[in-house]
Amino acid sequence: MPVFLSAQEPDFEDRFAALLAAKREADADVDEAAARILADVRARGVDALIELTERFDRLRLTPETLAFSEEEIDRAVARVPPEERAALELAAERIAAYHRRQLPRDESWTDRAGATLGWRWTPVDSAGLYVPGGLASYPSSVLMNAIPARVAGVRRLTMCAPTPDGQVNPLVLLAARLAGVDEVFRVGGAQAIGALTWGAGPIRPADKIVGPGNAWVAAAKRRVFGTVGIDMIAGPSEILIIADGAQNPDWIALDLLSQAEHDESAQAILITDDPAFARAAAAAVEARLATLERREIARASWRDFGAVIVARDLDHAAELSDRVAPEHLELCVADPDALAAKVRHAGAIFLGAWTPEAIGDYVGGPNHVLPTARSARFSSGLSVLDFMKRTTIARMSPGALAAIGPAARTLAQSESLEAHSLSVAARLEALNRGAEGEE
Amino acid sequence: MPVFLSAQEPDFEDRFAALLAAKREADADVDEAAARILADVRARGVDALIELTERFDRLRLTPETLAFSEEEIDRAVARVPPEERAALELAAERIAAYHRRQLPRDESWTDRAGATLGWRWTPVDSAGLYVPGGLASYPSSVLMNAIPARVAGVRRLTMCAPTPDGQVNPLVLLAARLAGVDEVFRVGGAQAIGALTWGAGPIRPADKIVGPGNAWVAAAKRRVFGTVGIDMIAGPSEILIIADGAQNPDWIALDLLSQAEHDESAQAILITDDPAFARAAAAAVEARLATLERREIARASWRDFGAVIVARDLDHAAELSDRVAPEHLELCVADPDALAAKVRHAGAIFLGAWTPEAIGDYVGGPNHVLPTARSARFSSGLSVLDFMKRTTIARMSPGALAAIGPAARTLAQSESLEAHSLSVAARLEALNRGAEGEE
Description:
Chains A, B: Its cofactor is Zn(2+). Chains A, B: InterPro entries: Ald_DH/histidinol_DH, Histidinol_DH_CS, Histidinol_DH_monofunct, Hstdl_DH. Chains A, B: One of its GO terms (biological process) is L-histidine biosynthetic process. Chains A, B: Its EC number is 1.1.1.23. Chain A is α/β, with parallel strands linked by helices and 439 residues long. Chain A folds into three domains: 154 residues, Nitrogenase molybdenum iron protein domain (Rossmann fold), CATH 3.40.50; 154 residues, Nitrogenase molybdenum iron protein domain (Rossmann fold, 3-Layer(aba) Sandwich); 42 residues, no CATH class. The mean pLDDT of chain A is 95. At the A-B interface, helix 5, strand 3, helix 10, strand 13 and helix 15 of A face helix 5, strand 3, helix 10, strand 13 and helix 15 of B. Strand 13 of chain A pairs parallel with strand 14 of chain B, so a sheet runs across the interface.
């Protein structure tokens, strides 16, 4: 059974704090193993990559067969049923339309001192997209990771995905093609992260590596962070739903379960101001669990990490939600806009009963790569900005240097950086000589 | 002597590649030591903090004396000479004015399907600012780290700075006050990062930790990344100057040395299209090195990592610069705007001979916390956005759900996520029943 909490009970605060502190993922101690694999790929390049792929994926590759050929992709893509292709195309279109609006603007202005200031955004040259194999190999994730890179203007977009025993999901290849991925390699794990960082055979180094992965992939990304850019270290996923008593309990139950079915360490939390609705929704979850295909996983998640919380009122619900800082937040209440205005920390907000979170996973438009495990306190979902960087620009006129240069000299001297001070002073002296010459 | 390269020589490409690959920083193997300190602070809180501060900074504190009191700050600040105070105030004003322009806009729109989409930016609740002690304790860095946080709207801004043997730089405290820092603690090293991550005594946990530090601080930040947000892992700093033959060699020499004097692993590179200017600038560096206060440091940096490169022409210079992706780029040429348009990767660009890089360190306005060690390929300098996060928003009308829901169902089914599919289907069925009812 999930945790039931009521704000009426005296131990509410302690129990809510315990829920927040609960650890949802075992520490997989794979850091050393990931480090060894990275060092091996860095030192031996494509040879290491091929050996590791044989060991982990039972697949014997050569430098020539590391990449999917265009013909292989053509053949796989041709097997996708038209309905699935159409759905993927609609998703790709909507995701691209949303992300195009994220393209940032350059700025430039001249201030009163005569300094021209501003900044300019440019895309990274190349991005590497990691796609997990097996169960977690989602075509929707390919779209969500690749499209923002393409919209940003990334020149080369490389995808790595393990194909254990040679198995591949044709929809993943179709998604890669729709999203404009340039090359797809059949490698996974920490070895793929190493190849994308330092290059290995046909795999060239990327400037930025994004995409979800298992514990080895996460450990490898943490280690190469700084040599290349990375997106984030993804943890177990969560949904928080704030619902009033007027909602359909079955809809809310399905939304909770659509998180719980992802994996056993996923978390689904319902907060309501109506104790009767809390009971009805919990009962609806049990009813749906009886027949759900992935009921084993969903039941474990709901039992171990699920929570049903009766708050004092909807304002209190928003406060509690901010302490969770959920990845996904559904506001199924009469006035969701008013409630959303009170929320400060959430990866994505879904407003009203007609917006199940699953819409956001596929076709809504916003990105489904979102900050997990309370990191919405300080980070954002994946966006076009993750594939761009900003260069600041400054240009002093002689007058601007005369106006603000002396303060720079003073500060450089106070920091004992003489060359800094002299670099300004030499120019100021030239200006003074010029001014004297004019007199 | 620094490296001299000419594009005319047959081994140019190899030697330039070697320059790019040169390692400028010894691997300090402090990761385990940092991990032990973090674990200690996490487990024992303020007791560990006090013990570690006694051991590393030879300073015996209590939970009550960990923070500077307002009176202590008042007394320190009163000792700052008026000229330095005025310079710091001018810098703070200009930095704030520049960063206020970075405040992002929220967006919201309704598309043809009837989906209302958008996003909203909110500040992080709390930020921790690390300030190194000793030589690297720069008041300008306090302004550069704290002001963007304040402009973003961060509610609580906590600063940690070690005070070895009780020593403190009054200008650092004045900068903290001018920038609106809320509290200042006398702790440093990995232990300060632990305290800012999990809290320790009077130090409360922060959501985001920024600021430069030594190898222990960098290792600790890398380890807590994910539990809190961090800015970047700073490496040794560099400048690249592209200058034509019409420049003043002494000015360029001083600009090169203003990077070299920072520390022995700093890097200063001059690229010019004029061999005679290359020789003149190198001679000017030697002349200035004879008398520079920090000549020991600057000479070691220039000797070990300095480079003077004669490019085929200015376009070639821009190409080479992009391969370096320098932290600081000065364009001292007749038409710096035209050349800047050809540059893709740089942390900050300084245009024209009247804009020495030192202006950007203090009073220009743009941030001086910039991506080092080639990371301008994928990352940006510190900005207001580092202290904010974006929540995506989606709201479906019933019509929008009817239009795009079926595609979401199809994709959920193809990913074998039944609850996802059912959460959409249950609502679509209600819509269909409604439509039938109307018939």
